[in-house]
Structure formats: structure tokens, C-alpha cells
Amino acid sequence: MVVHRSNAISQSTIPDELNSLLLYSKELGLDRMQIQAAGGNTSIKVGDTLWVKASGRWLSRADQENFMVPMSISSINSALSLESCTDSDIIECIIPDSSLNSVRPSVEAPMHAILESKFVVHTHDLKAIALTLSGKLLPKLQEAFEGLEWRFVPYIKPGIDLCRRLQSLKNKNDKVFVLENHGLVVCGDDLNELKLTMSDIGKRLESQFERSVEKPQMPRKRNFNIKGTGYTFCDDEHINELALKPNWRQRLSQGMLMPDCVVFLGPSIPSVDPYEIGFREKLTKLSSSNLPLNSCISLVDHGMIIRDDALKGTEEMIRCLHDLMSMLPDDVDLNYLNNDIIQSLLNWDAEKYRQKQNIFEQ
Q1: What pLDDT is stored for residue 212 in this prediction?
Q2: Which of 38, 47, 281, 289 has the smallest C-beta neighbourhood within 10 Å, fewest atoms?
Q3: Same domain, yes or no: 259 and 188
């Protein structure tokens, strides 16, 4: 990646440090248990400049141009000092650079700015998220992090709201935050030490899971046709398992557990019987909804179908749900995002922008 710098950034060490972070960002982005589609973000601070992931970008493609956006930390802090601070005020803190071409910073830029550490990594670690989804699982989370300095952050809207919550909770020594339904934030002044912390957390979380999910059998023959309905069957056999377990279908139709699942898949995943009367007409109607609604459908006992016009990252997010379902016990009640939270995400300009960055060009 070619790093574009404004005149305000003069330290000669930036390219090496930034490129090291980009390499690690890509490594994280290629691990679907840490990052899914356009989720997660990373940053580095040098002087008064914050380099933070651009909105809508994929960490797995961190070596591409304009992946990071340079911002003024002091300007962000000044904006946050006002109760009326908005996302637009944060965007105004970008350091002018003609190469950015209307690129926006991650909505989490304020959070990165107020955390004092040089490096900040925010992942959507599915193991960490899974252990926040039920009160019955929280003891496992506490056991996993025993001996570490960490803070649990009850769910709050990403962006400025999350930033303000961290401002009220944190002290200067806090380096690890677990965000309910959302993921991990890990900070450090040395990238190698941060990597070691991330690795340690990963091992601790892994120790809390026993994976013994019985693989369902796919039907040998589908005696129906969905061509022309706006949907296509998913080729991933693991994703298709989501439609074969009644408990999983019920959980998916009940609501969403993570913000990015709402942004890419909508409020829930409908379950449809392919042999019900008016099946094809129903699919055609569902496929005409505004995205991301009805981006995918669970066909009872047959598999998952995905809208032909679905956003980039849709399949990755469905695979994320499979990974999540595989880790969750069947006998626990889950903490779903409520309707107010879901509508707030779907109607948020920042997320509409991120969706726009992930539309397939026709």
C-alpha cells in the first residue's frame, strides 16, 4: 500500500509502523472468527494524527490503497467535548488529503481517539461475543479472563455512544474491553505486545468451548425450483446447515445478536417451507424488500438461499451466524438486540454509507 500523508505528518517512522499494522490488520481480517466482511477496525496514533480504518473497508484487504484515513486527534477531542457532537463533526476531523476521494473514517474513530494507547484493535471475536449473549455464559467469560485487567461493556450503539461509555468507564491502565454482543477492543503501545495479548485472549476463550455439533444431512433432492424468484441457493454446505436444525432456524427467525448482522442481513432471517402454497410468489415478494431486509432465507430442511442483489459480505455474515450457532448451547436464552437498537442501526446514515460501499456493481 502507498501511504498518503499530509504536511501535518512528518515522522519518518510512520510508514514502517503503519505498514506493520496493516499486515496485522490483514491477518486478523483473514480469520473469520475474528473479523467478518467489513467489520472491525484498527488504528495507530503518531503525534496528533490518528490513522484509522476507512468505513466500509475489509480488514482482509488492508493492503489496498486508501485503507486508512488520517485524522486530527485534538480535533476529535474538541468535537467530543460538545454534547451535540455528531458523526458529521467527527468526519470533519479528517486531515485533508486529495487522495482520499470522499472516504469516511470508521464510525469507531472516536473510540480509537480517546483510548490513549498507540495501537487500538477492535475485532468481532465470535468466541468473546458468544459468551456475552446469555447470563448463563457470563461465568465462562469471567473464567476466561481471570488474571487479566479487563472491562465488560454492556451493549451500546457503536460510534460516539460507545466512545462516551468508554470515557466514563475506563482508566489509563485499561487495555482490554469486552463489548456485549459486539466484540473485543485491545490496546497497546507496542504492536508485538498487543499481538501477544490477542493470542493469549484467543487461547483463553478457546478453552471455554467444546465443539461437538452433529452435522445434519442434506436432502438428496430438491423437488422445487427457485429460479426467477430473486434468490439462489448457497453453495456452502456449512451455511446450509442453518436451515436443517429447528433450534437454529428458530433462533435466526427470532432476531439478530450482533450489529453487523443487522447491517448486512436485516432484523432477522425468515424461515420458509418450500412446499407451502404460494412459495415462489412469497420469495419473489421477499426479494423485492429494501436491502438488507430478507437478504437470505432459511428454507426448512433444505438450505439457505441468498438474494441475487445482496450486499458484498452477505455470505460471510451468514457463515458468521453458523459459527456462532455452533458455539452456543441449545438450552440458553439469548440476548437479542431489541427493535429500537435494530431500527437505530438500519436508519443510521453511517451504516447506510457502509452498506453503499458494499453494493455489487451491476
Answers
A1: 63
A2: 281
A3: no
One domain, residues 42 and 179? yes
Are both 237 and 307 inside the same structural domain? yes
Domain containing 130: what range? 14-206
**Domain count across the chain:** 2
| Per-residue model confidence (pLDDT) at position 1 | 33
Domain presence at residue 327: yes
Q: What per-residue confidence (pLDDT) applies to 5?
A: 36
Q: For position 256, what pLDDT does the model report?
A: 98
- pLDDT value at position 361? 64
Which residues in the chain land under pLDDT 70?
1-14, 98, 211-220, 361-362
Task: Show the 3-state SS of the chain.
Answer: CCCCCCCCCCCCCHHHHHHHHHHHHHHHHCCCCCCCCCCCEEEEEECCEEEEEECCCCHHHCCCCCCEEEEEHHHHHHHHCCCCCCHHHHHCCECCCCCCCCCCECCCHHHHHHCCCCEEEEECCHHHHHCCCCCCCHHHHHHHCCCCCCEEECCCCCCHHHHHHHHHHCCCCCCEEEECCCEEEEEECCHHHHHHHHHHHHHHHHCCCCCCCCCCCCCCCCCCCCCCCCEEECCCHHHHHHHCCHHHHHHHHHCCCCHHHHHHHCCCCCEECCCCCCHHHHHHHHCCCCCCCCCEEEECCCEEEEECCCCCCHHHHHHHHHHHHHHCCCCCCCCCCCHHHHHHHHCCHHHHHHHHCCCCCC
CATH of the domain at 55: 3.40.225.10
Q: What pLDDT, on the 0 to 100 scale, is given for residue 219?
A: 63
Identify whether 226 is part of a domain. Answer: no
In a domain, 250, yes or no: yes
The residue out of 206, 240, 272 marking a domain boundary is 206
Give the pLDDT score at 286: 97
Is 222 a member of any domain? no
| Res 6: pLDDT | 37
